[in-house]
Write a structure and sequence with these properties.
Belongs to the glycosyltransferase 26 family. TagA/TarA subfamily. Pathway: Cell wall biogenesis; teichoic acid biosynthesis. Its EC number is 2.4.1.187. Catalyzes the conversion of GlcNAc-PP-undecaprenol into ManNAc-GlcNAc-PP-undecaprenol, the first committed lipid intermediate in the de novo synthesis of teichoic acid. It catalyses: UDP-N-acetyl-alpha-D-mannosamine + N-acetyl-alpha-D-glucosaminyl-di-trans,octa-cis-undecaprenyl diphosphate = N-acetyl-beta-D-mannosaminyl-(1->4)-N-acetyl-alpha-D-glucosaminyl di-trans,octa-cis-undecaprenyl diphosphate + UDP + H(+). The protein starts with a strand and ends with a helix. The chain contains 9 helices and 8 strands. It is globular and about 45 Å long. With 195 residues, the chain is of the alpha/beta class. The chain has helices at residues 16-28, 40-48, 50-59, 68-76, 87-101, 112-125, 143-152, 166-176, 189-194, and strands spanning 3-6, 9-12, 33-38, 62-65, 104-109, 130-135, 157-161, 182-185. Helix 2 (40-48) packs across helix 3 (50-59), helix 3 (50-59) crosses helix 8 and helix 7 (143-152) crosses helix 8. It has a single domain, classed as Rossmann fold. It has a 6-stranded parallel β-sheet with strand order 4-3-8-7-5-6. Strands 1-2 form a two-stranded antiparallel ribbon. The structure holds uridine-5'-diphosphate. Uridine-5'-diphosphate is lined by residues 109-111, 137-138, 161-164, 166, 187-188, 190-191.
């Protein structure tokens, strides 16, 4: 079974390693790719918010189980998922790839002090990354305008740490525009990364 349905959200039935292989191949091909790492809160929110559910069902290319609660629910439904695949682990791994390859990375989200600390850490520990954008997540413009700003920088990777559903709404615009990048919502990851 390719997908495992947990309360209307279709999780990809893949291991961390299988996701890695597919993401690398899509990066190499410059394919527009929108990844959602969904925890139980996201699944519950999607069940109460048709617009959000639609984004997960129609715009996301991959949905990973970000949380043991999802893995347990899948097992209870007798359609087990192989393992937990968190946004933070994928973020760290993709940043490593970006550093090795000198990729163009756009980071958006978290408080101004946090994004500044993230920027400093990237400059120090991922110095080969081409950081084409780093902005906090408390902008007041429409998401369409923000999406346009991101698109102009032609990133290979976009990480949005705005919390759900905002991060997925932003990335779904970029995905609908077929922006040729790998993009992922990473929740509170910048807070962890900067700490
Ligand atoms: N955030 C943001 N803009 C907002 C609301 C939240 O950038 O308008 C950031 C917040 O500073 C934090 C992250 O989004 O860094 C959300 O973290 P949380 O752990 O609440 O998200 P979850 O992983 O639960 O979606």
């Amino acid at each position: 079974m390719d997908k495992v349905n947990v309360l209307g959200v279709n999780f990809d039935n893949k291991t961390f390693n299988q996701f890695q292989n597919e993401f690398i191949s899509r990066l190499n091909d410059h394919e527009s790719t929108f990844i959602v790492t969904a925890n139980p809160e996201i699944v519950m929110a999607a069940n109460e918010n048709p617009r959000y559910l639609k984004v997960l069902q129609e715009d996301a290319d991959y949905i990973t189980a970000d949380g043991i609660g999802i893995v347990k629910a899948a097992k209870m439904l007798k359609t087990p998922l192989p393992e937990r695949v968190t946004g933070y682990d994928l973020f760290l791994w993709l940043m490593k790839i970006a550093n090795e390859r000198g990729l163009r990375v756009y980071l958006i989200g978290a408080k101004p002090s946090v994004i500044h600390a993230v920027q400093a850490k990237v400059a120090k520990e991922y110095s080969n990354v081409n950081l084409v954008g780093a902005e906090d997540g408390y902008f007041t413009e429409d998401l369409d305008l923000v999406a346009r700003r991101i698109q102009r920088t032609q990133p290979d990777l976009v990480f949005a740490a705005l919390g759900f559903p905002k991060q997925e709404y932003l990335l779904s615009i970029l995905r609908q525009n077929a922006m040729p990048a790998l993009m992922m919502g990473v929740g509170g990851s910048f807070d962890v990364f900067s700490g």
